[in-house]
Amino acid sequence: MENSTSPLLVSDEVDNTNFPVENDDACNKRKRQKKSEVWPEMTEIVDSKGESRYECKHCHFQLAKIKSGTTSHLKRHLTHCERYVETKKNHDDKLRQQQLSFGPLSIDSTSFPPLRDGKFCMEQMKESAATWILMHDHPFSIVEEEGFNIFCRSGMPQWTSISCVMIYELERKKLSCLLKAAKNISLTTDLWKSKNQKIEYMVVTAHWIDSDCKLNKRVLSFFNIPPPRGGPQISDAILKCARDWEIENKIFTVSVDNASVNDVAIRNLLNDLLRIKNNIVCGGKLFHVRCCAHILNLIAQDGLTEIKDIVDDVRRSVDFIRRTDSRLLKFAEIVKYLNLSERKLIDDCKTRWNSTYEMIQIAISFKEVFTRFKAREPSYVYCPIEEQWKKLEKVFSILKVLYEATKEISGTEYPTSSLFLNDIFRVKMILDENSHDEDEFICRMIEKMKRVHQCPKEGD
């Protein structure tokens, strides 16, 4: 008879009728139930030498059966058994009860918000933190503040600290993927001077159409551009930004303000790009786009010079009232007494005429309030007189057309090239209609504005 070398499972059926039983009572004793968590993962076997051993059900590794009954060595094996660890993880994932939470509910919604998986995900939290910062213009360093992290951990123990650099890198990777998928990218650039820091900044923005035919707009760079800020320096800065994002071969057009320094910058940039690639549309004839909104800004600024003294008085009035809480309170009481809608007084940015327009608009609506405030505040000496208010109202009616045209042309979520001609024609019509006004100052103002406008004549 052949001797079998394969181990014998203890649980296999064995004919033990011929085996002598020493103590019948011992067999009737109830066996203690095995409670250790290792037993479902092990099989008891008998090896070729007749010794009992344990075999792992996952990797089939054999371990000794210790007489004392300890299971420490079995537990140690399971912690290092890769197949067991993977099986347990998959099993736990299936059994784990998913947390459910309601999605965000909009104010005008009448139905229940959708249910979503409420399981904590740190990556999603990072994206949400970035969105929150951008939506409300919070400083990027807010995520590193100790109080912010204490607040997050009190509701989410799994929360780990994140840095603004981490959020930046995360968003940069996402934007880089979007730019790689774009075929042609148009750029806009502008210079902006900080009022407090006395530092000049440059912003470069990308515009493109994605595969779903949707317009996209993203700020690529916002940086300090040190003096001298000539054409070569501006073109070098734009090209460096394009190379950093690896889009120098995708630039379609560049829109800039109507200034001589920008003419030099775009000419230099075009020459640099022509050396890099030869497939620029129309050989670069469409490359340089002059910003229509900036041209309208120049027209409006020239018109405002005619009423500079009145605008200065309005600007000083706003600054005077906003300087102290007591003056603001007194002004608000008059607004309430006259039953006018409460609107915040705004100060303008002298280089952005649309903000000057909005300041004038609010001032005109509070014309009576300023007059009454003057009677209550002897130190207030900037209130325009009735004749000045009338001039301001006339100029406002003309500027309104320019403001609406600027607002429409400055849109970034819809094409504006098809709107340009119609808006410019409306501006021409309002200038022509008021060029022979009975007020001499209006005629002078229109004449100044037309010098910038210079619409092409019939036959040109």
In short:
The chain is of the alpha+beta class and about 450 residues long. The chain is built from 16 helices and eleven strands. α8 links the parallel β10 and β11.
What does this protein structure show overall?
By secondary structure, this protein is an alpha+beta fold. It has 4 domains: 37-80; 125-181, no CATH class; 183-290, Nucleotidyltransferase, domain 5, CATH 3.30.420; 297-453, no CATH class. 48% of the residues lie in helices and 13% in strands. It contains 16 helices and 11 strands. The chain has helices at 24-28, 72-80, 82-95, 122-136, 146-155, 164-181, 231-244, 260-276, 292-304, 308-322, 325-337, 353-365, 367-376, 386-409, 417-433, 440-453; strands spanning 8-9, 42-46, 52-56, 62-64, 100-102, 115-117, 185-193, 200-209, 215-224, 251-256, 288-290. The strands form 3 sheets. A 5-stranded mixed beta sheet has the order 9-8-7-10-11. The protein has a 4-stranded antiparallel beta sheet with strand order 1-2-3-4, with helices on one face. It has a two-stranded antiparallel ribbon with strand order 5-6. Strand 8 and strand 9 (215-224) form a beta hairpin. Helix 11 crosses helix 13 (367-376). The radius of gyration is 39 Å and the shape is elongated. The termini are far apart. GO terms for molecular function: DNA binding; zinc ion binding. Residues 33-98 form the BED-type domain. InterPro entries: RNaseH-like_sf (IPR012337), Znf_BED (IPR003656), ZnF_BED_domain_contain (IPR052035), Znf_C2H2_sf (IPR036236). Keywords: Metal-binding, Nucleus, Transcription, Transcription regulation, Zinc, Zinc-finger. It comes from Dorcoceras hygrometricum.
